[in-house]
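During the reporting period the student researcher (J.K.) took over the structure-prediction task from the postdoctoral fellow and processed the backlog of single-chain submissions. One of the processed entries is reproduced below for the supervisory committee.
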Amino acid sequence: MIARSIQTLLLMNDRRLYTLLTLTGATPFLAAALLPPLGYAAVDPFGSLVDAGLSYGLAIICFLAGIHWATYLYGVRTDTGNLLIVSNLIVLAVWVPYLFAPVPVVAGCMIAAFLALLFIDFRLKGKGVIEGHYLAIRSTATTLVVVSLAFIAVT
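J.K. obtained the following C-alpha cells:
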C-alpha cells in the first residue's frame, strides 16, 4: 500500500506525464549549453545562461535527491543504502563547489551527481521499486543533461 502511494506521488502511474515532464526538464540544460556559443550568452530575465543552467542543475539535483528521500521515508527500504544520507552527500558535493568553484568544476561535480543519482535509480529498479520505463526516461534525460553539462564545462 505504501509503495503504491509513493508511485502515485512520483507520477509513476501516468507514463505520458512523467515522460513529458522529465524530458522537458532537460531542455534548460540544452539551452544553457547551445545558446551561448551561438551568441546568446544572456537572456532576460535569466541573465547568464550558463549561470542559470548551473542554478537549475542544483535545483534538479535537489529535486532528484528529494525523490530518493521520499522513497526512503515512505518505507520503501532496499539494500541500496540509506537514501537520506547518500542523497544529502550528493547534494552537498554539488552545493559547496557551486558556491566557490569555477564553472568547469561545478559542471563536473554536477555530472558526477547526475550519474550517481541515476546509479541509485538503477539499483532501485533492480529491487523492483521503480519501473523500467521510468528508468529508461531518466536515463535519456540524464544523458542529455550530462552531455549539456560537459559542453558547458569545456566552452
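The committee noted the following: The first strand starts at residue 42 and ends at 43.
J.K. will present the remaining backlog at the next meeting.
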